[in-house]
């Protein structure tokens, strides 16, 4: 009889333990499913690239300048137009407000160019760098430097 009571006591203890194990297993499975369902939305947000800010361009009127050349030929002329790519709207506003000074700096730079240097690709790349450098200093004391991200030629005639 003690054997039957012992088996009966073990069965009474086994049922609650099995119920607790089943409840924990269901909870873990439910949590895992919930995490899997939530992860694709997070991955989609993380995978979505940030939209870059709209570029800020400033188109300048074309420039026509006489060029330096070894022959002292007065007919060596550069006709060039370009657009500046700027980092922000504040820089565009500053360049627009001080446009006469900007054009003056650029005219002085362009008139110092050598016709033979501008006839190849390397010369044009150097001119782009020089334009960025000449526009970098502040236009008026107390203002920040201008940052020109890129210079895009829209017209380039070397005659």
From TrEMBL:
The keyword Transmembrane helix is annotated on this UniProt entry: yes
Keyword annotations of the record: Cell inner membrane, Cell membrane, Cell projection, Chemotaxis, Cilium, Flagellar rotation, Flagellum, Membrane, Transmembrane, Transmembrane helix
Membrane association type: Single-pass membrane protein
Gene Ontology cellular component annotations, sorted alphabetically: bacterial-type flagellum basal body; plasma membrane
InterPro entries named in the record: FliL (IPR005503)
Superkingdom of this protein's organism: Bacteria
Xref: Pfam families: FliL
Subcellular location field: Cell inner membrane; Cell membrane
Any Gene Ontology biological process: bacterial-type flagellum-dependent swarming motility
Function field: Controls the rotational direction of flagella during chemotaxis.
Family statement drawn from the similarity comment of this UniProt entry: Belongs to the FliL family.
Record protein name field: Flagellar protein FliL
Organism per entry: Erwinia typographi
Gene that encodes it: fliL
């Amino acid at each position: 009889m003690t054997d039957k009571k012992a088996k009966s006591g073990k069965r009474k203890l086994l049922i609650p333990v099995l119920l607790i194990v089943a409840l924990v297993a269901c909870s873990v499975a439910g949590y895992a499913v919930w995490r899997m369902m939530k992860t694709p939305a997070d991955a989609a947000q993380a995978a979505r690239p940030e939209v870059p800010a709209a570029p800020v361009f400033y188109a300048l009127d074309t420039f026509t300048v006489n060029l330096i050349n070894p022959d002292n030929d007065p007919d060596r002329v550069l006709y060039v137009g370009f657009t500046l790519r700027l980092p922000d709207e504040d820089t565009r506003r500053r360049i627009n407000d001080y446009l006469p000074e900007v054009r003056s700096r650029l005219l002085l730079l362009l008139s110092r160019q050598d016709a033979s240097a501008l006839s190849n690709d390397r010369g044009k790349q150097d001119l782009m760098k020089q334009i960025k450098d000449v526009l970098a200093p502040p236009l008026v004391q107390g203002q920040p430097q201008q940052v020109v991200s890129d210079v895009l030629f829209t017209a380039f005639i070397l005659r």
